[in-house]
Amino acid sequence: MEGVNAFSIIIVVAYLIGMLLIGFIVGKLNIKDSKDYMIAGRRMGLFMVAFSLSANNIGGGSTTGLAGKAFGTWGMSAIWYVLAASVAMIPLAYFAPKIRKTMSITIPEVISRRFGTVSGTFSAVLNILALFCLTSSQIAASGSVVYVLTGIPLNVCILIAAIVIIVYTTMGGMIADQISDLVQFIVILAGLAIATPFVISGCGGWAAVSAALPAAKLDITGIGWVVIIGYIFNYFCTFLSGPEMVSRFESCKDEKTAVGASLLSALLMAAMSVFPTLIGLCAYAVKDTLPADIKNNAVMMAVTNTHAPAVITGVLSAAIIAATMSSADSNLLCMSTIFINDIVLKFRSKDKPAFSEQQIIRATRIFNVVFACVATVISLANIDIVTMNTFAFAIRCAGPFAAYGLGLVVKKAVKASGIISIITGTVGVIIWQILSGGDFYLGILPVVFGCAVGTVTFFIVNFIGWGMKLPPAPSAYPEGEEAEEKAA
User: Fold this and answer.
1) Range name among 88-102, 150-164, 317-331 with the lowest pLDDT average
2) Does residue 425 surpass a pLDDT of 90?
3) Separation CA 69–CA 78 (nearest Å)
4) From the centroid of its chain, how far is CA 130?
5) Sign of the Cα pseudo-torsion (456, 388, 341, 101, in order)
6) Tens digit of pLDDT for each residue in 10-23?
7) Cystine design at 432: which of 54, 296, 446, 464 (Cβ 3.0–4.6 Å)?
């Protein structure tokens, strides 16, 4: 066990140093103006964006959490926990070129353009509040992984993870974020792909594993089609109104790249979903060899420690820490970008001189550090990670979903439909969150319910507005009507 820990520590240290080097090099060579910093200068190619989209969607819940679900009650059908996200990326390809066509930096910027400053500012506040929760939970998760792998005190590990995330994100911005995402997803996918055959072999081979499993554990649709379809809708809603996803599409060099990146990301996530599921099933097949009090989220490392060579445990360690850190940097950068772009710059007095590009970069970097420090303090409070994530995804998506997503495609939408749908969607998701406890209630997740309420409200208000002959809201696209028709 000592050898395993030593190898894991070497892997973790090398990974953290690599992330710091990426931030330093990119910050020195590639950041010329605020668009370079916030959206990579709109020049990222297919593979960079696709891997970045995938890395942002694959966190600790999609690796150790997915294995835990397979070990627990879900069995083989746990694969849908990530596979549903893969399926949701396919319809997102329809919206991807429209997102890129807006030539915006953030979601609130587009909502403000269409439905007014109040709607955009409300969306910005919802996004910032949610991203605080998400950044805190990811810093806590990253620190927890370092703690498990190294044995260093948990609070120290959280601080180490936070410092690394702060430094490489603050120095390199979106370019460093996407380069690190590329590296992180390769590490995740390769690490899991290498480790899984060794774990299966160490557990006696797939024939022995499958023979030791109850038939229900091998049912790929065991959780039921209602739950599977619910997760697909959940992911689609959160992706379309997710600031870190939208920022990736905005960073594409053109609309065609945005479409291809969405579809390629779907394939990458589908491939990734298989490996944690199989490891979780192996853990269940040999559960008698694992500690009796083992928790579901710990079974991936436990079965690998017990039934695979030490070097494979180290490889898997790298994959897990990459998964947990790949989301924290994006959440942090999106939070500071929205704050600067949609609050500071928007409400700066017109009597004052405009900020220079370097001042905007400096201000965004400063708030990266400030927000990350606050998020780290929150993460040290040991608030339940699942609770924070559930709340964050709910409030950031349900309100802005209709105003942003439908605002891209319904060109005759009236101005009032934006703010009213944001309010009703937010109220709807809070009510459903309370009723369901964050889980399925009547077969519907809170985010899906809130988005549905906002969507219905959006169309009701528009039908009333059209009946009253109200004029359409301004275009979502900077060139106006002509660009909108081309994007449709």
Assistant:
1) 317-331
2) yes
3) 6
4) 12
5) negative
6) 777 777 787 778 77
7) 446
**Predicted structure pTM score:** 0.85
Q: What's the whole-number mean pLDDT along residues 89-113? A: 94
pLDDT tens by residue, 203-248: 999 999 999 999 999 999 999 998 899 889 989 988 998 888 999 9
CA 158 to CA 147: how far, in whole Å?
A: 8
| CB-CB neighbours of 167 under 10 Å | 20
Mean pLDDT of 342-354: 79
| Residue 297 forms part of a structural domain | yes
**In Å, how far from its chain's centre is CA 175?**
17
CATH of the domain at 186: 1.20.1730.10
Cβ count within 10 A of residue 205: 11
Mean of all residue pLDDT scores within the chain? 85
41 φψ region: left (φ > 0), alpha (ψ -120 to 50), beta (else):
left
464 SS3 class:
helix
Question: Is residue 252 in some structural domain?
Answer: yes
Long-range contacts of 440-443 (CB under 8 A, 24+ apart): 440/227, 440/230, 443/226, 443/227, 443/230
Domain count, the chain: 1
CA distances from 246 to 100, 263, 455 (A): 8, 15, 19
Residue 408 placed within a domain: no
Share of the chain above pLDDT 70, in %: 92
Range of the domain at 259: 2-344+358-384
Rounded CA-CA distance 262/240 in Å is 11
Residue 122 inside a domain? The answer is yes
